[in-house]
């Protein structure tokens, strides 16, 4: 008999796409070989005490999965969760066919006439983060790498019967999705939300030359889509000041 922690799909091929400090990320399939999925695996850490290690693995895995489910149930664009095995540290989720906002911005900003497309992405990014914060979810690692643009709509696990297969859309037109809620939390604190925005701002400034204006567009859309954003915006000023002081001290 299979042990309770046996892999749900033992023979499914997996392709490693990222090895982070905390998790291994694979492209795989779920239930059917035609349904692409992402597997995020938090491997056991042999240097940690086994009981503590298991508790941490379970806690982080469940925390990320719960935030994804919570966000999605509130209409915030995040990948759908397919399956969780917290003891193994596994989350299977919807595979997003597309690229990170970081990569798309790099391409668009390097090409002639990408401006309008960039503007539209900025607006949708602000709206997504605004929705997230309005739901009192703080991302915890909000960078342009952790926002994806879906460039192809495939029939996924949760797709309806009438859903078309493989409809490709332009890079700038695809749906935006927030990914990687591994450091996220539920919080009503303005400080936490302001730090989210600050982290995103730093990510913009360090990777994109004309980022100041772009980030301004993000913030405008953020404020429009999040009615309670005023105190967060005020707090962002404080967080920026602290950041500046810190960088002066060294
Ligand atoms: N649902 C998904 N569909 C497709 N690609 C994804 C998905 N989630 C993550 N990725 C890709 O895998 C990378 C790592 O995933 P992420 O959740 O950000 O892990 P980490 O915590 O290691 O940063 C992402 O930058 C993205 O390129
Ligand atoms: Mg990430």
UniProtKB/TrEMBL annotation:
InterPro entries: Bud32, Kinase-like_dom_sf, Prot_kinase_dom, Tyr_kinase_AS
Similarity comment: family membership: Belongs to the protein kinase superfamily. BUD32 family.
Matches recorded under SUPFAM superfamilies: Protein kinase-like (PK-like)
Record protein name field: EKC/KEOPS complex subunit BUD32
Gene Ontology biological process terms in this record: tRNA processing; tRNA threonylcarbamoyladenosine metabolic process
Compartment annotation: Chromosome, Telomere; Cytoplasm; Nucleus
UniProt GO cellular component terms: chromosome, telomeric region; cytosol; EKC/KEOPS complex; nucleus
Reactions listed under catalytic activity: L-threonyl-[protein] + ATP = O-phospho-L-threonyl-[protein] + ADP + H(+); L-seryl-[protein] + ATP = O-phospho-L-seryl-[protein] + ADP + H(+)
PANTHER family tied to this protein: EKC_KEOPS COMPLEX SUBUNIT TP53RK, NON-SPECIFIC SERINE/THREONINE PROTEIN KINASE
Gene source species: Sphaerosporella brunnea
Function: Component of the EKC/KEOPS complex that is required for the formation of a threonylcarbamoyl group on adenosine at position 37 (t(6)A37) in tRNAs that read codons beginning with adenine. The complex is probably involved in the transfer of the threonylcarbamoyl moiety of threonylcarbamoyl-AMP (TC-AMP) to the N6 group of A37. BUD32 has ATPase activity in the context of the EKC/KEOPS complex and likely plays a supporting role to the catalytic subunit KAE1. The EKC/KEOPS complex also promotes both telomere uncapping and telomere elongation.
Subunit structure: Component of the EKC/KEOPS complex composed of at least BUD32, CGI121, GON7, KAE1 and PCC1; the whole complex dimerizes.
Principal location: nucleus
Keyword ATP-binding: yes
Family annotation (PROSITE patterns): PROTEIN_KINASE_DOM, PROTEIN_KINASE_TYR
Lineage top rank: taxon: Eukaryota
Keywords: Activator, ATP-binding, Chromosome, Cytoplasm, Hydrolase, Kinase, Nucleotide-binding, Nucleus, Phosphoprotein, Serine/threonine-protein kinase, Telomere, Transcription, Transcription regulation, Transferase, tRNA processing
All copies of domain Protein kinase, residue ranges: 11-250
